[in-house]
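Thread: quick sanity check before group meeting

JM: Hey all, I'm pulling together slides for Thursday and realized we never actually wrote out the predicted structure for the chain we discussed last week. Dropping the sequence here so it's in one place. If anyone has concerns about the input, flag it before I start.
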Amino acid sequence: MSVSRREGGGSRGNHGLPHVFGATLAGAWLVAAALLWRTSVPSLEVPDLEPSSLFDAETLSRNARYENGLAALWVLGLGLQLVALWLLARRAPSLPGPLLFRAALMGALVFATLWLAELPVRLGVHWWRRRYDVSELGYLGYLAGPWSTTLGELALAAIAGLAIVAAGRLLGRRAWLGLWAAFVALAVAYVLVYPSLLAPRLRPLQDRQLATQIQQLGARIGLEEVEVEVRKARERTRAVNAEAIGAGPTTRVILWDTLLAPEVGRGEVRFAAAHELGHVARRHPWKGVVWFALLALPGAWLLGRVARLREPPALPRVALVLLLLQLATLPLANAISRRYEAEADAVGLRLTRDGRAAEALYRRFARTSLSDPDPPLLLHLLRDTHPTLAERIATARAGVPPGDPGSP
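JM (edit): ok, ran it. Output follows.
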């Protein structure tokens, strides 16, 4: 009997190990998320500005109509994609060929289904942008433009379908863990490889004085090698923007040609570039990869519980679950993005010490992108990756944030 009790006690102890492991993993997850959530944005006396005091009633009304229309089209597109995936999951066709070939075909079919389901909405969005003069691009040019990107995404979907089924066959019930590790590795590789090998080279900025000023801003925050390039965007939009890519020794600042228009002040251009340099200096691309790993871990576990990853007909259900998970985590993902954008704004203000130029750029967003300065809370949570224009203008008016722009 004593032996029986010891065996029973050992069994109870072994049954408790998964709970201990789960609790430890959850604690590590929360600690990592808390560390990533931290930013270097200082506490400032930020004025409480009403959007009506910053923009006239016509601008507020027009921009709200424009953004609400885009939001309605977004909801419609999401609904069409969910219905299309649900129908495909219920009636997945039988495909010819060996197992992995069928898996690749099914992955491509899932992508094509989503693409076709969203096509009317994408055309509707383009019509809406043309109606509000955000874009002058014709419909034929709009459809013909991104085919290289679309074909690349189709190929990736086929590879993903193959990888999911192969992992299901090789790893069985642990396939979700293998897929999680593989996709995190791909995200890391993308951050490392894309800036130097995959991102297309663009024409360098011809204004050497402005390019030198931007390079000097980068040097102040420890980015010694900064290349300044220009993206041709005027044909597709009148919105102004800038980008920065870099995770290695070289950082590329990409200015849209709309940002270099004669009516745009050079202080606005410098602040836009400083904001983008702030993303690289604060390692936001790498933090995004870690956030992806954290959010994908429970999602991959749930995916392994609700879908059979061993068979190609399960791939539409996999895609449906992934889309629902993406929707469920959207408020958190947008909140993370808004924090990092606010941090990049603070770095830009520290670098340029030009709050007036920052405010001028934010006001230009309202004129060119028709950003809503005062969006409804639900749309702000679900759609906005940046602080509102009213919040950003208030920060610009609060003065230069204290601290060294090069400090972490």
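AS: nice. The first strand starts at residue 203 and ends at 204. The beta strands are 203-204, 225-231, 242-245, 250-256.
JM: adding both to the slides.
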